[in-house]
Amino acid sequence: MSKTARKRLRYIILSILPKFISYWWIRQSLDLAFPKSNSKLTFEIASNAHDLLAALKLVQQNFEREGYAEKNSNGLRLTPYHLLPETVVIVAKRDNQVLATISVVPRTRFGLPLESSFTLNSLLDGKGRVIEVSALAVDPKVRGQQGEILYNLLKYMYHCNVGVLQANTEVIGVNPKMVPLYEAILLFNKIPKLSITKYDFANGAPVVPMMFSFDNADASYEKTYAKKPSKLNMFEFFKLPPPPQFILPNAKELDRYLPQRQPSEFIQILSMAKEAIATLTLEQKKVIKDLYSPWPISQRLIGEALHV
Protein backbone atom coordinates (compact mmCIF):
# COMPACT_ATOMS: atom_id res chain seq x y z
CA MET A 1 0.00 0.00 0.00
CA SER A 2 1.38 3.41 -0.96
CA LYS A 3 2.01 6.14 1.60
CA THR A 4 -0.84 8.21 0.12
CA ALA A 5 -3.23 5.26 0.38
CA ARG A 6 -2.20 4.65 4.00
CA LYS A 7 -2.87 8.31 4.81
CA ARG A 8 -6.32 8.12 3.24
CA LEU A 9 -7.13 4.90 5.10
CA ARG A 10 -5.97 6.43 8.39
CA TYR A 11 -8.10 9.51 7.75
CA ILE A 12 -11.17 7.36 7.03
CA ILE A 13 -10.65 5.28 10.19
CA LEU A 14 -10.15 8.36 12.37
CA SER A 15 -13.25 10.03 10.93
CA ILE A 16 -15.55 7.14 11.89
CA LEU A 17 -14.18 6.52 15.39
CA PRO A 18 -15.61 8.39 18.40
CA LYS A 19 -13.59 11.56 18.96
CA PHE A 20 -12.20 10.53 22.36
CA ILE A 21 -10.76 7.35 20.81
CA SER A 22 -9.46 8.90 17.59
CA TYR A 23 -7.83 11.81 19.44
CA TRP A 24 -6.22 9.45 21.95
CA TRP A 25 -4.85 7.50 18.98
CA ILE A 26 -3.49 10.66 17.35
CA ARG A 27 -1.74 11.71 20.59
CA GLN A 28 -0.26 8.23 20.95
CA SER A 29 1.31 8.62 17.51
CA LEU A 30 3.41 11.57 18.69
CA ASP A 31 7.15 10.99 18.92
CA LEU A 32 8.97 13.98 20.35
CA ALA A 33 12.08 12.01 21.35
CA PHE A 34 14.14 13.23 18.42
CA PRO A 35 17.62 11.75 18.07
CA LYS A 36 20.53 14.06 18.68
CA SER A 37 21.81 15.08 15.28
CA ASN A 38 24.55 17.17 13.76
CA SER A 39 22.20 18.50 11.11
CA LYS A 40 23.00 22.16 11.92
CA LEU A 41 19.32 23.04 11.88
CA THR A 42 18.48 26.54 13.09
CA PHE A 43 15.10 28.15 13.71
CA GLU A 44 14.75 31.90 13.39
CA ILE A 45 12.80 34.84 12.04
CA ALA A 46 13.55 35.50 8.37
CA SER A 47 15.62 38.65 8.88
CA ASN A 48 16.56 39.39 5.27
CA ALA A 49 14.93 39.38 1.86
CA HIS A 50 16.80 36.25 0.75
CA ASP A 51 15.37 34.07 3.54
CA LEU A 52 11.89 35.60 3.35
CA LEU A 53 11.61 35.10 -0.41
CA ALA A 54 13.04 31.56 -0.15
CA ALA A 55 10.38 30.77 2.45
CA LEU A 56 7.58 32.14 0.27
CA LYS A 57 8.91 30.17 -2.72
CA LEU A 58 8.71 26.97 -0.66
CA VAL A 59 5.14 27.82 0.38
CA GLN A 60 4.11 28.47 -3.22
CA GLN A 61 5.58 25.17 -4.39
CA ASN A 62 3.82 23.22 -1.64
CA PHE A 63 0.53 25.07 -2.11
CA GLU A 64 0.54 24.45 -5.86
CA ARG A 65 1.11 20.75 -5.19
CA GLU A 66 -1.79 20.65 -2.70
CA GLY A 67 -4.08 22.76 -4.89
CA TYR A 68 -4.15 25.71 -2.48
CA ALA A 69 -2.61 28.11 -5.03
CA GLU A 70 -2.36 28.57 -8.78
CA LYS A 71 0.96 29.14 -10.51
CA ASN A 72 2.00 32.76 -10.70
CA SER A 73 4.68 34.77 -12.46
CA ASN A 74 7.13 35.16 -9.56
CA GLY A 75 6.81 31.68 -8.01
CA LEU A 76 6.19 33.17 -4.55
CA ARG A 77 3.32 33.00 -2.08
CA LEU A 78 3.83 36.72 -1.47
CA THR A 79 0.49 38.06 -0.24
CA PRO A 80 -0.47 41.59 0.83
CA TYR A 81 -0.16 40.38 4.43
CA HIS A 82 3.57 39.85 3.88
CA LEU A 83 3.86 43.56 3.10
CA LEU A 84 2.59 44.58 6.54
CA PRO A 85 5.18 45.94 9.00
CA GLU A 86 4.43 43.44 11.79
CA THR A 87 4.19 40.17 9.83
CA VAL A 88 6.76 37.60 10.96
CA VAL A 89 8.02 34.80 8.70
CA ILE A 90 9.65 31.99 10.70
CA VAL A 91 12.09 29.64 9.00
CA ALA A 92 13.95 26.42 9.71
CA LYS A 93 17.32 26.44 7.95
CA ARG A 94 20.28 24.19 7.34
CA ASP A 95 23.41 25.45 5.59
CA ASN A 96 21.56 28.66 4.70
CA GLN A 97 18.76 26.73 2.96
CA VAL A 98 15.16 27.22 4.08
CA LEU A 99 13.60 23.81 4.81
CA ALA A 100 10.38 24.86 6.52
CA THR A 101 8.43 28.01 7.23
CA ILE A 102 5.33 29.46 8.82
CA SER A 103 3.99 33.03 8.79
CA VAL A 104 2.49 34.95 11.71
CA VAL A 105 0.24 37.92 10.91
CA PRO A 106 -0.67 40.19 13.86
CA ARG A 107 -4.12 41.76 13.61
CA THR A 108 -4.09 45.38 12.48
CA ARG A 109 -6.56 47.73 10.80
CA PHE A 110 -5.77 45.87 7.58
CA GLY A 111 -7.35 42.74 9.06
CA LEU A 112 -6.34 39.08 9.08
CA PRO A 113 -6.44 36.65 6.13
CA LEU A 114 -9.49 34.92 7.65
CA GLU A 115 -11.26 38.27 7.83
CA SER A 116 -11.27 38.40 4.04
CA SER A 117 -14.04 35.76 4.21
CA PHE A 118 -15.39 35.89 7.77
CA THR A 119 -16.68 38.61 10.07
CA LEU A 120 -14.73 38.08 13.29
CA ASN A 121 -15.06 41.41 15.10
CA SER A 122 -17.51 40.22 17.75
CA LEU A 123 -15.40 37.12 18.33
CA LEU A 124 -11.95 38.73 18.48
CA ASP A 125 -12.70 42.07 20.12
CA GLY A 126 -11.61 41.85 23.73
CA LYS A 127 -9.27 38.90 23.05
CA GLY A 128 -6.12 40.99 23.49
CA ARG A 129 -3.39 40.84 20.86
CA VAL A 130 -4.60 38.53 18.08
CA ILE A 131 -2.42 36.82 15.49
CA GLU A 132 -3.17 34.52 12.57
CA VAL A 133 -0.88 31.67 11.58
CA SER A 134 -0.66 30.77 7.90
CA ALA A 135 1.64 29.65 5.07
CA LEU A 136 2.98 26.51 6.76
CA ALA A 137 5.28 24.50 4.50
CA VAL A 138 7.98 21.83 4.90
CA ASP A 139 10.36 20.91 2.08
CA PRO A 140 9.41 17.41 0.80
CA LYS A 141 13.13 16.60 0.54
CA VAL A 142 13.37 16.40 4.35
CA ARG A 143 10.42 14.07 4.91
CA GLY A 144 12.64 11.78 6.98
CA GLN A 145 13.07 14.62 9.47
CA GLN A 146 9.64 16.13 8.97
CA GLY A 147 8.46 15.47 12.54
CA GLU A 148 11.60 16.93 14.10
CA ILE A 149 11.51 19.99 11.86
CA LEU A 150 7.75 20.58 12.05
CA TYR A 151 7.39 20.23 15.82
CA ASN A 152 10.45 22.35 16.51
CA LEU A 153 9.09 24.95 14.10
CA LEU A 154 5.83 24.96 16.07
CA LYS A 155 7.74 25.18 19.35
CA TYR A 156 9.74 28.14 18.04
CA MET A 157 6.50 29.78 16.91
CA TYR A 158 4.98 29.23 20.37
CA HIS A 159 7.92 30.95 22.08
CA CYS A 160 7.92 33.73 19.47
CA ASN A 161 4.18 34.34 19.77
CA VAL A 162 4.22 34.43 23.56
CA GLY A 163 7.61 35.94 24.35
CA VAL A 164 8.30 38.21 21.38
CA LEU A 165 4.93 39.15 19.88
CA GLN A 166 3.16 38.90 23.26
CA ALA A 167 0.03 37.46 21.68
CA ASN A 168 -3.07 36.46 23.63
CA THR A 169 -5.11 34.73 20.92
CA GLU A 170 -4.21 32.78 17.79
CA VAL A 171 -6.46 31.92 14.85
CA ILE A 172 -5.86 29.73 11.84
CA GLY A 173 -7.74 28.49 8.79
CA VAL A 174 -7.38 24.70 8.49
CA ASN A 175 -8.30 22.26 5.75
CA PRO A 176 -11.00 19.93 7.18
CA LYS A 177 -8.73 16.87 6.91
CA MET A 178 -6.21 18.57 9.25
CA VAL A 179 -8.71 19.51 11.97
CA PRO A 180 -8.03 16.38 14.10
CA LEU A 181 -4.30 17.21 14.23
CA TYR A 182 -4.92 20.77 15.40
CA GLU A 183 -7.63 19.76 17.88
CA ALA A 184 -6.02 16.63 19.30
CA ILE A 185 -2.36 17.66 19.49
CA LEU A 186 -2.21 21.47 19.42
CA LEU A 187 -5.54 21.91 21.28
CA PHE A 188 -7.11 24.46 18.95
CA ASN A 189 -10.89 24.82 19.08
CA LYS A 190 -13.12 25.12 16.04
CA ILE A 191 -14.92 28.45 15.77
CA PRO A 192 -18.60 27.43 15.65
CA LYS A 193 -20.63 27.93 12.46
CA LEU A 194 -17.78 29.41 10.45
CA SER A 195 -16.59 26.70 8.04
CA ILE A 196 -16.93 27.29 4.30
CA THR A 197 -16.50 25.05 1.29
CA LYS A 198 -14.61 27.57 -0.85
CA TYR A 199 -11.99 29.84 0.71
CA ASP A 200 -10.62 32.30 -1.84
CA PHE A 201 -7.37 32.81 0.08
CA ALA A 202 -6.64 29.08 -0.43
CA ASN A 203 -7.66 28.86 -4.10
CA GLY A 204 -11.19 27.75 -3.30
CA ALA A 205 -10.23 24.93 -0.91
CA PRO A 206 -12.54 24.31 2.07
CA VAL A 207 -11.46 25.81 5.39
CA VAL A 208 -12.35 25.48 9.06
CA PRO A 209 -11.46 28.52 11.20
CA MET A 210 -9.92 27.59 14.56
CA MET A 211 -8.78 29.47 17.65
CA PHE A 212 -6.27 29.01 20.48
CA SER A 213 -5.89 31.05 23.68
CA PHE A 214 -2.35 31.61 24.93
CA ASP A 215 -3.82 32.92 28.19
CA ASN A 216 -5.22 29.43 28.91
CA ALA A 217 -2.47 27.47 27.18
CA ASP A 218 -0.64 26.17 30.24
CA ALA A 219 -3.79 24.85 31.88
CA SER A 220 -5.04 23.24 28.65
CA TYR A 221 -1.74 21.57 27.79
CA GLU A 222 -1.10 20.40 31.33
CA LYS A 223 -4.57 18.87 31.62
CA THR A 224 -4.08 16.94 28.37
CA TYR A 225 -0.41 15.96 28.62
CA ALA A 226 0.63 16.06 32.31
CA LYS A 227 0.85 12.29 32.79
CA LYS A 228 2.30 11.48 29.38
CA PRO A 229 5.90 10.28 28.91
CA SER A 230 8.28 12.81 27.38
CA LYS A 231 8.04 11.53 23.82
CA LEU A 232 4.24 12.01 23.91
CA ASN A 233 4.20 15.17 26.02
CA MET A 234 3.57 18.31 23.98
CA PHE A 235 3.20 20.39 27.17
CA GLU A 236 6.70 19.47 28.34
CA PHE A 237 8.09 19.89 24.81
CA PHE A 238 6.71 23.42 24.44
CA LYS A 239 7.57 24.54 27.97
CA LEU A 240 11.19 23.39 28.03
CA PRO A 241 13.60 26.33 27.50
CA PRO A 242 14.42 27.09 23.85
CA PRO A 243 17.42 25.07 22.64
CA PRO A 244 20.59 26.77 21.31
CA GLN A 245 19.47 26.41 17.68
CA PHE A 246 16.52 28.73 18.36
CA ILE A 247 17.51 32.32 17.51
CA LEU A 248 14.88 34.34 19.36
CA PRO A 249 15.02 38.14 19.55
CA ASN A 250 13.27 40.11 22.23
CA ALA A 251 10.39 42.41 21.36
CA LYS A 252 12.61 45.52 21.27
CA GLU A 253 14.92 43.93 18.68
CA LEU A 254 12.27 43.31 16.03
CA ASP A 255 13.23 46.40 14.02
CA ARG A 256 16.51 44.78 13.01
CA TYR A 257 14.96 41.34 12.50
CA LEU A 258 12.01 42.14 10.24
CA PRO A 259 13.21 42.82 6.68
CA GLN A 260 10.25 45.06 5.87
CA ARG A 261 11.62 47.51 8.47
CA GLN A 262 15.09 47.46 6.88
CA PRO A 263 15.03 49.66 3.76
CA SER A 264 17.68 47.80 1.75
CA GLU A 265 15.92 44.47 2.35
CA PHE A 266 12.44 45.93 1.85
CA ILE A 267 13.36 47.21 -1.62
CA GLN A 268 14.11 43.63 -2.72
CA ILE A 269 10.80 42.36 -1.33
CA LEU A 270 8.79 45.13 -2.97
CA SER A 271 10.43 44.41 -6.32
CA MET A 272 8.73 40.98 -6.22
CA ALA A 273 5.37 42.20 -4.92
CA LYS A 274 3.64 43.50 -8.06
CA GLU A 275 1.03 40.72 -8.12
CA ALA A 276 0.17 41.21 -4.45
CA ILE A 277 -0.06 44.98 -4.88
CA ALA A 278 -2.35 44.58 -7.90
CA THR A 279 -4.99 42.93 -5.69
CA LEU A 280 -5.25 45.90 -3.32
CA THR A 281 -7.91 48.59 -3.34
CA LEU A 282 -6.91 52.23 -2.94
CA GLU A 283 -8.24 52.20 0.63
CA GLN A 284 -6.18 49.11 1.49
CA LYS A 285 -3.06 50.75 0.06
CA LYS A 286 -3.63 53.81 2.24
CA VAL A 287 -4.06 51.61 5.33
CA ILE A 288 -0.82 49.73 4.64
CA LYS A 289 1.12 52.94 4.11
CA ASP A 290 -0.31 54.41 7.31
CA LEU A 291 0.73 51.33 9.31
CA TYR A 292 4.36 52.14 8.44
CA SER A 293 4.28 55.58 10.09
CA PRO A 294 6.74 54.50 12.87
CA TRP A 295 9.29 53.60 10.14
CA PRO A 296 9.50 56.68 7.85
CA ILE A 297 11.95 55.30 5.26
CA SER A 298 9.99 52.06 4.84
CA GLN A 299 6.81 54.14 4.68
CA ARG A 300 8.24 56.15 1.80
CA LEU A 301 9.27 52.96 -0.01
CA ILE A 302 5.89 51.27 0.41
CA GLY A 303 4.14 54.49 -0.62
CA GLU A 304 6.16 54.61 -3.83
CA ALA A 305 5.45 50.94 -4.56
CA LEU A 306 1.73 51.38 -3.88
CA HIS A 307 1.54 54.74 -5.71
CA VAL A 308 -0.15 56.43 -2.75
3D architecture notes:
The chain has 308 residues and is α+β, with helices and mostly antiparallel strands. The chain has twelve helices and nine strands. Strands 1, 2, 3, 4, 5, 6, 7, 8 and 9 form a nine-stranded mixed sheet that branches. A hairpin with a 2-residue loop joins strand 2 (88-94) and strand 3 (97-106). Helix 9 (263-270) runs parallel beside helix 12 (296-306) and helix 11 (282-291) packs antiparallel against helix 12. The termini are far apart.
Task: For this entry, give a set of tags.
308 residues; globular; 17% strand; nine-stranded mixed β-sheet; Aminopeptidase; alpha+beta
Within the CATH hierarchy, at the fold level, what is the topology? Answer: Aminopeptidase
- The global form is globular
Radius of gyration: 19 Å
Q: Percentage of helical residues? A: 25-40%
- N-to-C CA distance: 57 Å
What percentage of the residues does DSSP assign to strands (E)?
A: 15-25%
Please work out how many helical segments DSSP would assign.
12
- Count of distinct strands: 9
Produce the secondary structure layout.
Elements: H1 3-16, H2 19-28, E1 42-45, H3 49-66, E2 88-94, E3 97-106, H4 121-124, E4 130-138, H5 146-164, E5 169-174, H6 179-184, E6 189-190, E7 196-199, E8 205-213, H7 217-225, H8 234-239, E9 246-247, H9 263-270, H10 274-278, H11 282-291, H12 296-306
Structure at a glance:
The chain has twelve helices and nine strands. With 308 residues, it is α+β, with helices and mostly antiparallel strands.
